[in-house]
Write a structure and sequence with these properties.
The chain is an alpha/beta fold. It contains 8 helices and 15 strands. It has a 5-stranded parallel sheet, with helices on both faces. A hairpin with a 3-residue loop joins strand 13 (about 210-215) and strand 14 (about 220). It is elongated and about 60 Å long. Keywords: DNA-binding, Phosphoprotein, Transcription, Transcription regulation, Two-component regulatory system. Pfam families: Response_reg, Trans_reg_C. GO terms for molecular function: DNA binding.
């Protein structure tokens, strides 16, 4: 799945953005300062950058410049209302878009999607063992028939798709489901969600091929996956 690089110093905005982006199936790396952003860029590759223009130790333009040196990815600036000169500067530096704070979540997601599609980095389809997930429409099919998932079951599935090459610990799943649900999700509840999801998407829930248990650690996605 697509990896978003978020550079934002406002803790509340950053927290809400991380939750929003993860709920849409993105993987997010967040840093609050220009210095940390430049350090993160040295050893990581991203698919899109969301950069606040005003940072506590400088501005987002320096981050934009560094990205353009090393990575050919879309850049969207987050800017204060009415700061037209900053917007023009950012676009002249090669930014793909900007969005003014405060912004509507759905508008931001739409702009991110548009930027990713334009750059050819958007991953909208995911297939594994007869399961087809169309993330553009939110439709899930199993062997050609539509599968109806609850909001949390779909969120759980997106987490595995977003981390298709990694083991996801039970602790991380609990933290992210708790945030998405807005209420406490305990260990027993997580087990129930995993069981229900397997019953809907696995050919044989008793011998899962899609969501595999890593004993003593958590879960991982099966190996035979494909994304488009």
């Amino acid at each position: 799945m697509n990896q978003i690089f978020l550079v934002e110093d406002d803790k509340t905005i950053a927290k809400n953005l991380v939750l929003l982006l993860r709920s849409e199936g993105f993987t997010v790396s967040h840093v609050p300062t220009r210095r940390e952003a430049l350090t993160a860029l040295a050893g990581n590759k991203f698919d899109l950058a969301l950069i606040d223009i005003s940072l506590p130790d400088g501005n987002g333009f320096a981050v934009c410049t560094e990205i353009k040196k090393t990575q050919d990815i879309p850049i969207i600036f987050l800017t204060a209302s009415g700061d037209e000169s900053s917007v023009v500067t950012g676009l002249n530096m090669g930014a793909d878009d900007y969005i003014t704070k405060p912004f509507r979540p759905r508008e931001l997601i739409a702009r991110i999607g548009a930027a990713l599609r334009k750059s050819g980095r958007s991953i909208s389809d995911f297939k594994i063992h007869g399961l087809h997930v169309d993330m553009a429409s939110g439709i899930v099919e199993k062997n050609g028939s539509e599968v109806f998932l609850s909001a949390l079951e779909y969120r759980l599935l997106l987490m595995f798709i977003s981390n298709s090459k990694s083991i996801i610990t039970r602790g991380r799943l609990l933290d992210e489901l708790w945030d998405a649900a807005g209420e406490f999700v305990n260990d027993n509840t997580l087990t129930v969600y995993i069981k229900r999801l397997r019953e809907k998407i696995e050919n044989d829930p008793a011998s899962p091929q899609i969501i595999l248990t890593v004993r003593g650690t958590g879960y991982r996605l099966g190996n035979e996956y494909a994304s488009e």
